[in-house]
Amino acid sequence: MARDIVSELRQNRRVGARQLLPGRLHWLLGALLILPGPAAVGCGSSGGKGTSGPDGGAGTTGTGGTSAGGSGGTSGAAGAASAGTGGAGGAAAGTSGAGGQAGAQSCTNAPHVLPLNTSNPQDGITLGGFYVDTDTWNAASYAVSQTMYVCDYNNWYVVAKMDNTTGDGAVKTYPNVHQDFNAAPAISSFTVISSSFSHAGPHVGIYEFAYDIWLNGVASTGSTEVMIWTDNFNQVPSGSVQETFALDGRSYKVYKSGSYIAFMDTNNVTSGTVNLLAIFNHIISKGWIAGTSTLGAIDYGVELVSTNGMDATFVVDGFSLTTN
Fold it and tell me: Which of its termini does the chain have fewer beta carbons within 10 Å around, N or C?
Protein backbone atom coordinates (compact mmCIF):
# COMPACT_ATOMS: atom_id res chain seq x y z
CA MET A 1 0.00 0.00 0.00
CA ALA A 2 1.30 3.47 -0.88
CA ARG A 3 2.48 5.38 2.15
CA ASP A 4 0.46 8.51 1.35
CA ILE A 5 -2.69 6.37 1.55
CA VAL A 6 -1.59 4.97 4.90
CA SER A 7 -1.01 8.50 6.21
CA GLU A 8 -4.46 9.60 5.07
CA LEU A 9 -6.07 6.62 6.79
CA ARG A 10 -4.14 7.44 9.94
CA GLN A 11 -5.44 10.97 9.93
CA ASN A 12 -9.04 9.81 9.44
CA ARG A 13 -8.86 7.23 12.23
CA ARG A 14 -7.07 9.30 14.89
CA VAL A 15 -8.30 12.89 14.71
CA GLY A 16 -7.89 14.33 18.21
CA ALA A 17 -6.46 11.12 19.68
CA ARG A 18 -3.25 11.12 21.65
CA GLN A 19 -1.59 8.38 19.69
CA LEU A 20 -1.69 7.64 16.01
CA LEU A 21 -1.02 5.14 13.28
CA PRO A 22 2.16 4.56 11.31
CA GLY A 23 2.55 3.17 7.80
CA ARG A 24 5.02 0.67 6.47
CA LEU A 25 6.52 -1.20 3.54
CA HIS A 26 8.69 -4.30 3.27
CA TRP A 27 8.99 -8.07 3.17
CA LEU A 28 9.54 -10.79 5.77
CA LEU A 29 11.22 -14.14 5.53
CA GLY A 30 8.81 -16.98 6.28
CA ALA A 31 11.36 -19.13 8.07
CA LEU A 32 12.87 -18.78 11.54
CA LEU A 33 14.43 -15.36 11.75
CA ILE A 34 16.60 -14.18 14.62
CA LEU A 35 18.70 -11.18 13.72
CA PRO A 36 21.17 -9.98 16.36
CA GLY A 37 22.88 -6.64 16.17
CA PRO A 38 26.23 -5.74 14.62
CA ALA A 39 29.52 -5.54 16.51
CA ALA A 40 29.99 -1.81 16.10
CA VAL A 41 31.11 -0.41 19.42
CA GLY A 42 31.24 -3.10 22.07
CA CYS A 43 27.85 -4.51 21.05
CA GLY A 44 26.95 -7.34 23.40
CA SER A 45 23.79 -9.41 23.38
CA SER A 46 21.83 -10.88 26.22
CA GLY A 47 21.54 -14.61 26.60
CA GLY A 48 19.38 -16.73 24.37
CA LYS A 49 19.47 -18.83 21.26
CA GLY A 50 20.61 -17.18 18.09
CA THR A 51 21.81 -17.86 14.62
CA SER A 52 25.03 -15.89 14.54
CA GLY A 53 27.54 -14.70 17.07
CA PRO A 54 28.21 -10.98 17.43
CA ASP A 55 31.23 -9.72 19.31
CA GLY A 56 30.93 -10.27 23.00
CA GLY A 57 32.44 -11.91 25.95
CA ALA A 58 31.39 -12.11 29.51
CA GLY A 59 28.26 -10.04 30.06
CA THR A 60 27.77 -7.60 32.87
CA THR A 61 24.64 -6.48 34.60
CA GLY A 62 22.33 -4.35 32.46
CA THR A 63 19.35 -2.40 33.62
CA GLY A 64 17.11 -5.29 32.57
CA GLY A 65 19.07 -7.77 34.70
CA THR A 66 22.20 -9.84 34.63
CA SER A 67 22.72 -11.55 31.28
CA ALA A 68 25.52 -13.40 29.62
CA GLY A 69 27.05 -11.80 26.55
CA GLY A 70 27.19 -13.96 23.44
CA SER A 71 30.53 -15.31 22.36
CA GLY A 72 31.85 -13.71 19.21
CA GLY A 73 31.25 -14.77 15.63
CA THR A 74 33.88 -15.99 13.25
CA SER A 75 34.45 -12.56 11.79
CA GLY A 76 33.78 -10.52 14.87
CA ALA A 77 36.38 -8.06 16.04
CA ALA A 78 36.98 -7.40 19.70
CA GLY A 79 34.88 -4.62 21.16
CA ALA A 80 35.13 -2.58 24.31
CA ALA A 81 32.63 -3.50 27.01
CA SER A 82 29.55 -1.32 26.91
CA ALA A 83 26.81 -1.66 29.52
CA GLY A 84 23.40 -2.10 27.95
CA THR A 85 19.81 -1.86 28.92
CA GLY A 86 19.08 -5.53 28.33
CA GLY A 87 22.63 -6.84 28.67
CA ALA A 88 26.19 -5.68 28.32
CA GLY A 89 28.94 -5.83 25.79
CA GLY A 90 31.98 -8.00 26.07
CA ALA A 91 35.56 -8.08 24.93
CA ALA A 92 37.02 -11.04 23.08
CA ALA A 93 36.02 -12.31 19.67
CA GLY A 94 35.13 -16.01 19.41
CA THR A 95 34.66 -18.61 16.72
CA SER A 96 31.18 -20.09 17.05
CA GLY A 97 29.27 -17.84 19.36
CA ALA A 98 25.58 -17.98 20.04
CA GLY A 99 23.56 -14.87 19.38
CA GLY A 100 20.52 -14.03 21.44
CA GLN A 101 17.72 -11.61 22.01
CA ALA A 102 18.15 -7.93 21.36
CA GLY A 103 21.06 -6.50 23.34
CA ALA A 104 22.03 -2.89 23.86
CA GLN A 105 24.70 -1.42 21.62
CA SER A 106 26.07 1.98 20.67
CA CYS A 107 25.49 3.77 17.36
CA THR A 108 28.36 6.17 16.75
CA ASN A 109 29.48 7.71 13.45
CA ALA A 110 26.24 6.53 11.87
CA PRO A 111 26.75 5.69 8.17
CA HIS A 112 23.14 6.60 7.32
CA VAL A 113 21.71 10.00 8.25
CA LEU A 114 18.07 10.65 7.37
CA PRO A 115 16.86 14.24 7.88
CA LEU A 116 13.19 15.14 7.80
CA ASN A 117 12.11 14.82 4.18
CA THR A 118 9.05 16.98 3.49
CA SER A 119 8.54 15.37 0.07
CA ASN A 120 8.59 11.82 1.47
CA PRO A 121 7.29 11.37 5.04
CA GLN A 122 8.11 7.64 4.80
CA ASP A 123 11.75 8.15 3.85
CA GLY A 124 13.99 5.39 5.10
CA ILE A 125 16.50 2.67 4.33
CA THR A 126 16.37 -1.12 4.00
CA LEU A 127 18.89 -2.99 6.16
CA GLY A 128 18.95 -6.71 6.93
CA GLY A 129 15.52 -7.22 5.41
CA PHE A 130 13.93 -4.55 7.62
CA TYR A 131 12.86 -1.04 6.66
CA VAL A 132 14.10 1.71 8.99
CA ASP A 133 11.51 4.45 8.56
CA THR A 134 11.61 8.14 9.53
CA ASP A 135 7.78 8.14 9.41
CA THR A 136 7.23 11.89 9.76
CA TRP A 137 3.69 11.49 8.48
CA ASN A 138 2.10 14.24 10.60
CA ALA A 139 5.06 16.63 10.86
CA ALA A 140 3.92 19.00 8.12
CA SER A 141 1.08 20.33 10.28
CA TYR A 142 3.39 21.35 13.14
CA ALA A 143 6.79 22.88 13.88
CA VAL A 144 8.92 19.73 13.87
CA SER A 145 12.57 18.92 13.32
CA GLN A 146 13.85 15.34 13.23
CA THR A 147 17.02 13.59 12.10
CA MET A 148 17.49 9.83 12.18
CA TYR A 149 20.99 8.35 12.61
CA VAL A 150 21.16 4.71 11.53
CA CYS A 151 23.95 2.20 12.15
CA ASP A 152 21.74 -0.81 11.46
CA TYR A 153 18.09 -1.87 11.57
CA ASN A 154 18.48 -2.68 15.27
CA ASN A 155 20.84 0.15 16.17
CA TRP A 156 19.69 3.72 15.53
CA TYR A 157 18.62 6.92 17.23
CA VAL A 158 16.57 10.02 16.51
CA VAL A 159 17.15 13.62 17.53
CA ALA A 160 13.81 15.45 17.41
CA LYS A 161 12.30 18.76 18.45
CA MET A 162 8.57 19.54 18.73
CA ASP A 163 6.01 20.69 21.27
CA ASN A 164 2.35 20.37 22.22
CA THR A 165 1.47 24.06 22.38
CA THR A 166 -1.75 23.39 20.45
CA GLY A 167 -2.83 21.06 23.25
CA ASP A 168 -4.24 18.51 20.80
CA GLY A 169 -1.84 15.75 21.89
CA ALA A 170 -1.21 14.76 18.27
CA VAL A 171 1.59 12.36 17.39
CA LYS A 172 3.85 14.07 14.87
CA THR A 173 6.22 11.25 13.93
CA TYR A 174 6.81 7.53 14.52
CA PRO A 175 10.42 6.66 13.66
CA ASN A 176 10.51 2.87 13.55
CA VAL A 177 11.91 -0.36 12.19
CA HIS A 178 9.44 -2.70 10.53
CA GLN A 179 8.74 -5.60 8.24
CA ASP A 180 5.66 -6.26 6.16
CA PHE A 181 4.18 -9.69 5.58
CA ASN A 182 3.14 -9.02 2.01
CA ALA A 183 1.79 -12.53 1.49
CA ALA A 184 -0.65 -11.97 4.40
CA PRO A 185 -0.05 -15.32 6.13
CA ALA A 186 -2.73 -16.60 8.48
CA ILE A 187 -1.93 -16.11 12.16
CA SER A 188 -2.92 -19.75 12.65
CA SER A 189 -0.07 -20.83 10.35
CA PHE A 190 2.57 -19.71 12.88
CA THR A 191 3.94 -21.61 15.85
CA VAL A 192 6.20 -18.71 16.91
CA ILE A 193 5.96 -14.94 16.55
CA SER A 194 8.24 -13.33 19.10
CA SER A 195 10.18 -10.07 19.25
CA SER A 196 12.81 -8.55 21.51
CA PHE A 197 13.58 -4.86 21.96
CA SER A 198 15.90 -2.46 23.76
CA HIS A 199 15.60 1.32 23.85
CA ALA A 200 16.28 4.50 25.82
CA GLY A 201 14.19 7.68 26.11
CA PRO A 202 14.97 11.17 27.45
CA HIS A 203 12.00 11.45 29.88
CA VAL A 204 10.93 14.84 28.54
CA GLY A 205 7.73 15.84 26.77
CA ILE A 206 5.20 13.24 25.61
CA TYR A 207 6.05 9.98 23.85
CA GLU A 208 5.86 6.20 24.04
CA PHE A 209 7.96 3.36 22.69
CA ALA A 210 5.66 0.79 21.16
CA TYR A 211 5.04 -2.02 18.72
CA ASP A 212 2.56 -1.12 16.02
CA ILE A 213 1.12 -4.20 14.35
CA TRP A 214 -1.40 -4.55 11.54
CA LEU A 215 -3.71 -7.53 11.12
CA ASN A 216 -6.00 -8.28 8.16
CA GLY A 217 -4.27 -5.73 5.97
CA VAL A 218 -2.20 -2.62 6.63
CA ALA A 219 -4.24 0.49 7.47
CA SER A 220 -6.92 -0.63 5.04
CA THR A 221 -10.64 -1.25 5.23
CA GLY A 222 -11.24 -4.13 7.63
CA SER A 223 -7.75 -4.07 9.15
CA THR A 224 -7.06 -4.07 12.89
CA GLU A 225 -4.24 -2.14 14.53
CA VAL A 226 -2.64 -3.67 17.62
CA MET A 227 -0.17 -1.62 19.65
CA ILE A 228 1.97 -2.85 22.53
CA TRP A 229 3.26 0.05 24.62
CA THR A 230 6.47 -0.93 26.38
CA ASP A 231 7.60 2.44 27.77
CA ASN A 232 5.15 5.31 28.16
CA PHE A 233 5.95 8.90 29.14
CA ASN A 234 2.84 11.10 29.63
CA GLN A 235 0.92 9.44 26.79
CA VAL A 236 -2.65 8.01 26.81
CA PRO A 237 -4.01 5.35 24.40
CA SER A 238 -7.21 5.82 22.48
CA GLY A 239 -10.34 4.04 23.63
CA SER A 240 -11.36 2.68 27.03
CA VAL A 241 -9.87 0.01 29.27
CA GLN A 242 -11.34 -3.42 28.53
CA GLU A 243 -9.33 -5.63 30.86
CA THR A 244 -5.98 -6.35 32.48
CA PHE A 245 -4.05 -9.05 30.66
CA ALA A 246 -1.11 -11.00 32.14
CA LEU A 247 1.56 -12.60 29.95
CA ASP A 248 5.01 -13.95 30.79
CA GLY A 249 5.16 -12.16 34.12
CA ARG A 250 4.04 -8.82 32.71
CA SER A 251 0.70 -7.05 33.16
CA TYR A 252 -1.01 -4.98 30.46
CA LYS A 253 -3.99 -2.66 30.53
CA VAL A 254 -5.89 -3.32 27.33
CA TYR A 255 -7.56 -0.37 25.58
CA LYS A 256 -9.93 -0.69 22.65
CA SER A 257 -11.57 1.77 20.30
CA GLY A 258 -13.23 0.20 17.27
CA SER A 259 -10.54 -1.67 15.33
CA TYR A 260 -7.74 -0.18 17.45
CA ILE A 261 -6.39 -2.25 20.36
CA ALA A 262 -3.56 -1.20 22.68
CA PHE A 263 -1.77 -3.30 25.29
CA MET A 264 -0.06 -0.88 27.69
CA ASP A 265 2.49 -2.39 30.06
CA THR A 266 1.56 -1.32 33.59
CA ASN A 267 5.27 -0.97 34.39
CA ASN A 268 7.53 0.73 31.88
CA VAL A 269 10.31 -1.49 30.57
CA THR A 270 13.28 -0.52 28.40
CA SER A 271 14.14 -4.02 27.16
CA GLY A 272 12.49 -7.39 26.94
CA THR A 273 10.85 -10.04 24.79
CA VAL A 274 7.18 -10.13 23.79
CA ASN A 275 5.27 -13.24 22.72
CA LEU A 276 3.32 -11.59 19.94
CA LEU A 277 1.58 -14.79 18.87
CA ALA A 278 0.12 -15.22 22.36
CA ILE A 279 -1.28 -11.68 22.17
CA PHE A 280 -2.82 -12.32 18.75
CA ASN A 281 -4.40 -15.55 19.97
CA HIS A 282 -5.78 -13.72 23.02
CA ILE A 283 -7.40 -11.12 20.76
CA ILE A 284 -8.92 -13.94 18.72
CA SER A 285 -10.24 -15.60 21.91
CA LYS A 286 -11.96 -12.31 22.85
CA GLY A 287 -13.79 -12.31 19.53
CA TRP A 288 -12.18 -9.00 18.51
CA ILE A 289 -10.76 -10.51 15.32
CA ALA A 290 -11.64 -13.68 13.42
CA GLY A 291 -9.74 -16.93 13.83
CA THR A 292 -8.89 -16.71 10.13
CA SER A 293 -7.11 -13.34 10.57
CA THR A 294 -3.86 -12.61 8.77
CA LEU A 295 -0.64 -10.81 9.67
CA GLY A 296 0.16 -7.61 7.78
CA ALA A 297 3.07 -5.80 9.44
CA ILE A 298 5.15 -5.58 12.62
CA ASP A 299 6.83 -2.30 13.63
CA TYR A 300 8.80 -1.14 16.65
CA GLY A 301 9.62 2.50 17.33
CA VAL A 302 8.64 5.62 19.25
CA GLU A 303 5.58 7.82 18.79
CA LEU A 304 6.55 11.44 19.39
CA VAL A 305 4.10 14.09 20.58
CA SER A 306 6.37 16.63 22.28
CA THR A 307 9.95 17.21 23.41
CA ASN A 308 8.97 20.43 25.21
CA GLY A 309 10.44 22.46 22.35
CA MET A 310 14.01 21.24 22.83
CA ASP A 311 16.23 18.72 21.08
CA ALA A 312 15.78 15.26 22.59
CA THR A 313 17.32 11.91 21.71
CA PHE A 314 15.42 8.62 21.39
CA VAL A 315 17.45 5.41 21.00
CA VAL A 316 16.58 1.96 19.70
CA ASP A 317 19.66 -0.14 20.44
CA GLY A 318 18.23 -3.63 20.10
CA PHE A 319 15.54 -5.34 18.03
CA SER A 320 14.93 -8.88 16.79
CA LEU A 321 12.02 -10.75 15.28
CA THR A 322 11.49 -14.52 15.36
CA THR A 323 8.82 -16.26 13.30
CA ASN A 324 8.16 -19.87 12.41
Answer: C
